[in-house]
Structure formats: structure tokens, C-alpha cells
Amino acid sequence: MSVVSITDLRVEIHGKPILNGVSLDIAPGEILALTGESGSGKSMTALAVMGLLPHAAKASGRIDLGGRDLLTTPEGDLCAIRGRDIGMIFQEPMTALNPLQTIGAQVSEVIRLHDPRADATKRAREALDKVGLDLPLSRHPHELSGGQRQRVVIAMAIACRPKLLIADEPTTALDVTTQAQIIELLRDLVRSEGMALMMITHDLAVVADMADRIAVMRAGDVVESAPTAQLFARMQHPYTRQLFEASRHRADLPPYTPAPPLLQVRDVRRSYPLPRAHPFARRGQFTAVDGVSFDIGTGERLGLVGESGCGKSTLTRAILGLDPVQGGQITLDGVPVTDPAARRNMQVVFQDPYSSFNPRHRVARLITEPFHLTGAPTDPQKAIAEALTAVGLHPDDQHKHIHAFSGGQRQRLAIARALIIRPKLIVFDEAVSALDVRVRAQILDLMADLSRAYGLTYLFISHDLSVVRSITDRVLVMQSGKIVEDGPTEQVFDAPSHPYTQRLLAAAPHLPEAPDAA
Amino acid sequence: MLAYLFRRLMSLILSLAVASLVIFLVVEVAPGDPASYMLGINAQPDTLAALRAELGLDLPPVQRYVAWVTGMLSGDFGTSYTYRTEVAGMIAQRLWVSLPLALYALVLSTLIAFPAGILAAARRGRAADVTVMAGTQLGVAIPNFWFAMLLVLLFAIKLRWMPSGGFPGWDDPAKALISLTLPAVALALPQAAILARILRSSLIDALGEDYIRTARAKGLTRWQALRRHGLRNALIPVLTILGLQFSFLLAGAIIIEQVFYLPGLGRLIFQSISQRDLIVVESVVMLLVFAVIVVNFLTDLAYVAVDPRLRR
After folding, report:
1. Which chain B residues contact residue A52 at CB under 8 A?
2. Residue A140: which of B210, B219, B308 has the nearest Cβ?
3. Is residue A94 part of a domain?
4. Is there a contact between A82 and B218 if contact means CB atoms under 8 Å apart?
5. ipTM, 2 decimals?
6. Are residues A155 and A61 in the same domain?
7. Is residue A118 situated within a structural domain?
8. Does any domain span residue A119?
9. Does residue A409 contact residue A436 with C-beta atoms inside 8 Å?
């Protein structure tokens, strides 16, 4: 007997089909992973089960929970079901909690709501203990780390011992070590409480050794659904195979021949003043980057990995010359990076392709922006056409606005914008983290092609170890403001010498080995 | 928390010091000599000199500034050039009209704005929202003195429920409140319209946040989620506007005071300026600045009460 049984679920929004007949079952104690790229309908499926579809959405089919069809259940009854019979965990723990209420108040609210006579405070404490959060109930969300906040969200979701738990990308926003802990926690909870878990993720590796069954979605359809081992062994649908291949894709980088250093970072220290503890206290200092030194040779592709808060963003800002440093020196070709002469030899590609372009300008203007550093070229049309062609777009695309492009195309435009002035160094700041696996593979290939054609030198910053492995020659591992390991990429990944690197690599989710071609 | 309070308090004192200096300098450079204004154009030079000495106008500016500030600190605001009475007494009398009027209008405006703003946000895009938005648009657009005249026409002249103007004093509080009602309504409505719009948009933003989705996933109804999680999060911009509005209501009621013949601060400052009664002008402006700064300080405290993230 399954906990939830979805039959032929169809959803459309303003006449546009979103789900075309999704059918899924989850048994008690079973973990079903729902995977697929963005827009495949996995979150919509979850929202349909919760009864929280957008107003404009029309749903048909049947979602059976304990003999009741949730699609025909009136809103009032759904409110009683949500939180009690179905718990939900969301992607973004930083914003999922009310910032003005204590964590105790937020966890006990769900208990009080569904069982007014319960000792809500006591049970909130129990729920937080169960998710391994040993913090007072009186804490506010801003006093907690991302992983701790996600534990609070999980505590809220399981506080009423629901039959079904839905987790929508619960670890995507977390660091690898935290991710490993949260996955462990969810797995234990499902086993000990006998809940059914619907786990939504874009990352096959995350669910590879956690899910009992995997359902692969594409454009509103479940294209393949099978027990995990069987799915990885057979991969009957070509789309599943494509996803799998893209996830473990290695770009074909041209070999790097050691060359004199281009960027030199020497003993860089960057610190921030902390707020005073009391009016007459001395201001404390938080050192985000603590005596960091490294070089990037001309033509070298260097990776920088570390978890959130390790100082990699601060270091990046310092390298880009955006922030002053409190000690040490950063030079590009011998020129300090704060000098405009160095700025015009450096460009950056950011993480979010949706917010890093001004939506009111056309592509031609967007990608020629860096020319203000160098002065306009003699033939701007030629430069635009070249840059667009180099990143695999068409010269005619220059007349379009940014909203006409997909996420992957936007990231190509971001690279075109960086390339157009032929900088000596490009900084990729989590540049592929927001992309779907297949698009990500294409962008990585593009970077390899560009390396071959233009002899690019870049610094690739990411929290995603597998991506760094596939696109860099050498890698730096950063922890608490210091570089703890520095070595050729293959060597660091195969035989990490620092305990922190070893921990990171152990925590990173792995895909099973590729099956033999069928 | 203590550090925050201390910083706010320091900035309050500093603002007051700077404000007093600016006010003094502005009045100092303003054209017109109060002594010659008081005595008329035919005054004898020696009479003029005697009056200037009596008023202390012949002293050097630094000395006069120090005397003015130390006087104020001990409650002595000086003597009005025109009326020859204690400025402190004059202000106190007017304050007993303006302060209750401002508070009355503020309470009314809040009582109207909160239900309207919440209703509009909760029923976004539906009839209730459209009605509230149209009403507030009107409320923002209509000048309050014109609206005041309409109120007088209807409630004082046609229906004869309330007096058309004047203020009987606080001997009979009920009567005093009745005579403040029409001015308070006239002042409150435009403020309520602005406040309702701010509350609506701030609440709509809050309702789009992830924690509202979390609240709904817990099983709260839309309304419960709005009330328990949305409202307090939407409050910060509303508090800012409330603070600004109170300052405006205290000082900006000049026209409404004229329409209703109310002996308030606005009229006092208007009269004093036209009569070159500089000592009164300085003192009233200083008082208003003081009120604004104190209200800002209270607003800051309210932020901290609402948002725990500011308590550090």
C-alpha cells in the first residue's frame, strides 16, 4: 500500500501544459528521487501534492493520500493535511524561516496548529533534538548557519510525524560537508519514522546512494522510473543517459606548458571590522583572507575551492581590485590590480546569468561595455560579431534583449562580454553553478575550446569539486582564509594531502561508474 | 543592543546640537531687524539702540547663541519681541492644541490605513484591492485644506454636528475633542492613504517571501500566514512612514489650523515670521526639530522591537 499515489497528473498554466500525465507511487519508508533539469516539472509535481500550485494552474488526474484525492479536497481540509500528513522542506534555508520569530516559536507553531492540546514546546524540543540541533529554542534564524537553518526546517516538517515528506532540492544551497550531513539525516529519519520521502534534485550524484528509486522527468513527463541500481545499470531512456554523461562530463583542456606568472598574489590579508560589543569596546577584526600567496602562470587554468565563509569571495573581490587589502600585494603582469591599467586586462563572469545583465539594454551594448576600459575599437561591429561567434552564438543576436536568451545562452553572453577586450585573465566566479547539467557540460566545453583558440588564463572559483576537476590544471583549497592545499588538479583529487581536502572529497557525492554501452 | 541604543542616543544629541546652530545662523542672516520692525519706520536712533540693548541684540552672536541654548536647557525660551510675554508659556499653550491634534490624526490614520492596507494586500487584484487603491489614490490627490472645507460644509454647516472652527480649551475635554475631530479627520485621511499604500506593497512583498510558503506548508491558511508571519515583517517601512507623518502632523498643520481657527504651533510660527518675532521663530523651530529627532529615535527603538536582527 503506497503512502501517496499520483495517477495521470496533468497541470496547465494559462493553457500551457506543465505536467502531461505524471504517475508515481511512494511506499512507506521508501525514498523516491525525482530528478530532471529546470522546467521539467519536478517542483510543480511537489506543489500539486501540497495543494500549493499557483492560482492560475489547473490540475487534473488524481493524487491519492490515504484514500483521499487531494486534488478534489477543499482548501480548509488541505490546511489540516499540510504539516500533519505531508511535511515539506525547501531549497533555500536562508529565507525559508521567518526572520522575526525564534526557531522554537516556528517549530512549535506547526505542532500547536495540528494538535492544540499538545505540549508544543516540549515536542518542538524533541523535534529539534531529532534533527540533531542542540540549540536553545530562543534563537533567531539569523544566529544560525545555513545547515542549522535547514535542520530547523526539517524539524518543522517532521514535527507532526507526517506520512509523506517532500524535500525540494534540500541540499542544493549547502556546502558539500553540510550536504552530506543533511542527506544522512533525511535517510535516517525516513528509516526510523517509516515516512515516504519524495526527494527532488537536479543532481543525480546526490541521490545515487540514497534513493530507493529514481524517476527522471523531462518537460512534464516521467521518461524513466526504476530502482536506483537498475536505473544506473540500464539507463533505458536516452535522456537519462544524456543527464548521466553530462553530470560526469570532463572538458578536453589543451595541455598547459608552464609559463612565467601572470597574476601574483603575495601575502594578501583582508579583514573587516566587527561591530563593537559595547560602546567603549575595541573594535574586533575578522580576518577573511589570511596571508594568501599564489601565482597564475600565463595560459594556466587555476581552480579555487572552499566552503561558504572560507574567504574565496573576499579573495576574488581583492583580485578584481574591488576592495583594498590590509596587507600584501596583488599584481597582474607586474601592475597592482587596483590600477586601471590592470583592470582592463581582467574580466569576470558571475554566477547568476539572470541578474548580471541590465534587462533594458540590447546585447550589442551589453557585451561592448568593457570597452569603456580600453576605448572603443576601430570596428565595433567586427568585435561584436567575433565575440558572439566565439561563444557559439550568431552575430545577429546582438540586436536582441537579454530576456530572449536561456540561462546557458546568457552565460555564453557573459563570456562574450568578458572576451571582447581580449583580457589577459578571466575570473569565473561560480560561473556554471546555476546551470543545468547538460548546459553546464556545453559551457565547460566552450571554455576548453576558447582555451585552445585564445590561450585563456583563468581563475575558476567554485564550491563544486567535480566541475573544478574537469576544467582546471591546478587547484587551491581554501579553508578559514588560508590556502591549505595547492597542487596539480589530478594529484589533489586523487591523493589529497591535507585532512580538510580529504574531508571535502569524502563528503562530495559520487555517481556510480558508467555502465557499459548497451 | 546597548551599543545600538548608545549610538542612537549619541546621534540624537549631536543632531540637536547641529540643528540649534543651523537655526541660529539662519535666523541671524535673515534680513530684517526685529527692533526697527517693532518700533516702526519713524523710530529715533537712540530709542532703537535702547531697545536693541534691552533685547540683547547688541551682544556678539556667539554670546547670544550660548545664552539662547543655555536658556532653553533650563526651560527659559526668552521673551517674545512682539507680545512681551514668556515664549515658553506661549509655546506650551499652543502645544496643548497641536500635540493632541497630531496624535489624534495619527491614531485615526493608523486605524484607517491598517485594515485598508491589509485587505488590499490579502485580496490583491480583486475588487476589494481595486477599491482600496482607487480610494487611496483619491486620498493622496485631494488637498487636505479643500477636503477640510468640504467637511465643514457637511458636518458643521449642513448637519450642525460639530463646530466649524475654534478651540474651546481643555476645561471640557469632550468639547475639546469634538472641536478637534474635523481637523484631525482632514489631516488623517491623506496620511492614511499613503500609509495604506505603503502597507499594501510592503505586505505583498512579504507575502512573496519563502517563509510564507513555509508557513503554508505547515498548514496555516492564507490569512493565518499573513497575520502571523507577513504583517510583522511588513512593518519596518510602515514604521518609517509613521515617524515621518507624526513630524509632519505636528508642524505641517498650518493650513488646517487656519481653516479651523485653531491656536496651534503652525499658526504661531507663521505669525511670528511675519512679525519678525525671531526669538519665537527660533524657539518653535527648535522645538519642532526636537520633536522630529525624538520621534526618529523612537522609530529606531521600534525597529529594534520588531526586528531581532538589529539587536546587536
Report:
1. 213, 216-217
2. B308
3. yes
4. yes
5. 0.82
6. yes
7. yes
8. yes
9. no
CATH number assigned to the domain comprising residue A490: 3.40.50.300
**Do the beta carbons of residue A104 and residue A144 sit within 8 Å?**
no
Answer yes or no: do A71 and A177 share one domain: yes
Residue A427: all three cell numbers together: 575570473
DSSP chain B: -HHHHHHHHHHHHHHHHHHHHHHHHHHHHSS--HHHHHH-TT--HHHHHHHHHHHTTTS-HHHHHHHHHHHHHTT---B-TTT-SBHHHHHHHHHHHHHHHHHHHHHHHHHHHHHHHHHHHHTTTSHHHHHHHHHHHHHHHS-HHHHHHHHIIIIIIIS--S-SS----TTSHHHHHHHHHHHHHHHHHHHHHHHHHHHHHHHHHHHTSHHHHHHHHHT--HHHHIIIIIHHHTHHHHHHHHHHHHHHHHHTTHHHHHHTT---HHHHHHHHHHTT-HHHHHHHHHHHHHHHHHHHHHHHHHHHHH-GGG--
Model-level pTM?
0.84
Predicted pLDDT of residue A434: 80
Q: How far is B52 from chain A (nearest CA, A)?
A: 47
Clarify whether residues A150 and A29 are in a common domain. yes
pLDDT value at residue A518:
41
Strand pairing partners for A329?
A: A266
The residue of chain A with its CA nearest to that of B218 is A83
Nearest of A416, A295, A316 to residue A363 by alpha carbon: A416
Task: Write the residue in A50, A96, A281 that is nearest to B210 by C-beta.
Answer: A96
Amino acid at A410: R
Q: Do B307 and A101 count as a contact with CB atoms less than 8 A apart?
A: no
CB contacts, 8 Å: B309 with chain A? 99, 140, 142
pLDDT value at position A515? Answer: 57
Q: Which of B126, B205, B212, B214 to mutate to test the interface with A (most CBs of A within 10 A)?
A: B214
Question: Do residue A207 and residue A291 come from a single domain?
Answer: no
Domain that holds residue A211: 4-245
Calpha distance A28→B280 (Å, rounded): 81
Task: Tell me how far CA of residue B205 lies from CA of A72, B221, B226, B237, B288, in angstroms.
Answer: 30, 18, 11, 11, 34
> Are A27 and A91 part of one and the same domain?
yes
Overall number of domains in chain A:
2
Cell numbers linked to B26: 539662519
- Fold for B92-310, please state it: MetI-like fold (1.10.3720)
CB spacing of A109 vs B6 below 8 angstroms: no
Residue-level pLDDT at A517: 45
Q: How many other C-beta atoms are found inside a 10 Å radius of the C-beta of residue A71?
A: 18
Below-70 pLDDT ranges, chain A: 276-279, 514-518
Contacts of A113 in chain B (CB under 8 A): 218-220
Asked whether the beta carbons of A150 and A184 are under 8 A apart, the reply is: no
Query: Any idea which residue has 544560525 for its cell?
Result: A144
pLDDT means over runs of 10, chain B (312 residues): 81 91 83 73 81 79 86 84 83 89 94 95 92 92 88 88 84 89 91 95 93 94 93 91 86 81 87 83 87 89 87 68
Q: Where are the domains of chain B?
A: 92-310
The confidence score (pLDDT) of residue B312 equals 62
Q: Model confidence over B9-58: pLDDT tens digits?
A: 898 999 999 999 998 888 777 777 777 777 777 778 888 888 888 777 77
Query: Do A334 and A224 share a structural domain?
Result: no
In a domain, A383, yes or no: no
| Cα gap A130→A339, rounded to integer Å | 54
DSSP assignment of A1-42 = --SEEEEEEEEEETTEEEEEEEEEEE-TT-EEEEEE-TTSSH
Nearest chain B alpha carbon to A281: B3
